[in-house]
Write a structure and sequence with these properties.
alpha+beta, Alpha-Beta Plaits, 2 domains, 10-stranded mixed beta sheet, 10 helices
Length: 310
């Protein structure tokens, strides 16, 4: 079980400032004060080493600004429909992976940007599964299976995704940190509707499953052996639904193809970040909420194979 995200509060920091600093000063002669004591106290209190890594899934409506005015107004509603249904799909169809989540936890880990947002998860596997479920909804919507009349009004919707894995902290019930900053930089730089990941995410999959390419041959039993899933209830493998990665490898369902390619670097916080493009093909069974007995097989792609730089 990952350690809790470090929480900082405005009131606690204000108390330190009240003790060791001056709220305001307007003397005739201005001098730079000695701040070493305050620096040491803030360093000890904040304790940057206590900041834990978390996966951030960035989701962005591709070319949102180019939609006509009416459609622009409707797209946030469409995004919320996707988000709520993706939560339900994740919890119902991927019960082992998301057993420590509920709808409220995912909703509280979401940071809206208006035309998309960032979702915080414990590790990159959670983020990737949620991205797959989200894209299943996008494909279903574009194919006129979800709110077909609304789809006819808005036109097709295309999204781009980014997954980063780095430090985060919480301040007054909001989230901040390197993982969010890097994610925003990646989405900002991407001019194509791809699914991009940073070096830390690439390394996480490399260390835990020998690389993203192995998603197509991974079983839920092997996933359960990943260190961060060691304390999960393995009985859910037998009793629950595990659609994206199941108990056996098959070309009939789950991840059937997975590709990853380094496409370049971006600059963030004076550092060069290696960026990778991933492309997954996933086959799942889909059905209407009201008619779960009628199922349809759907194969969709997360990301694309466009390897143009960033």
């Amino acid at each position: 079980m990952p350690e809790k995200i470090r929480k900082l509060s405005y009131s606690e920091i204000k108390e330190l400032l009240k003790e060791l600093d001056t709220e305001s000063t307007f003397e005739k002669v201005n001098v730079i004060p000695e701040s070493e004591e305050l620096y040491q106290k803030l360093t000890e209190f904040i304790n940057v080493r206590s900041f834990k890594k978390r996966a951030v899934l960035g989701i962005d409506i591709y070319r949102y600004g180019l939609y006509p005015h009416l459609q622009q107004t409707l797209i946030p509603t469409v995004f919320k429909i996707f988000f709520e249904k993706a939560i339900r799909l994740s919890l119902e169809n991927n019960q082992f992976v998301f057993q420590k989540y509920d709808a409220k936890k995912i909703e509280q880990s979401f940071i809206s940007t208006g035309d998309g947002g960032f979702v915080i998860f414990d590790n990159p596997m959670h983020a990737l599964f949620f991205a797959i479920n989200f894209e299943i909804l996008v494909r279903s919507y574009n194919a006129y299976h979800v709110y077909p009349k609304l789809r006819n009004i808005t036109g097709s919707v295309s999204l781009r995704y980014a997954i980063t894995y780095d430090t985060l902290f919480s301040f007054d019930n909001n989230f901040y940190g390197t993982s969010i900053i890097n994610n925003a930089r990646i989405l900002e730089k991407d001019a194509l509707n791809r699914c991009l990941i940073d070096q830390n995410t690439y390394d996480w999959f490399l260390i835990n499953i020998d690389g993203i390419e192995n998603l197509q041959v991974l079983t839920i039993h092997e996933l359960a052996n990943i260190a961060e899933f060691q304390d999960y209830d393995k009985e859910i493998i037998r009793t629950g639904d595990n659609e994206i990665i199941d108990t056996k490898v098959t070309r009939d369902s789950g991840v059937i193809n997975s590709d990853v390619l380094k496409i370049g670097q971006i600059r963030s916080k004076e550092l060069n970040l290696n960026i990778y493009n991933i492309h997954l093909q996933v086959t799942v069974k889909v059905f209407a909420d009201q008619k779960k007995d009628i199922k349809r097989t759907l194969t969709m792609s997360l990301g694309n194979l466009n390897t143009s730089g960033i």
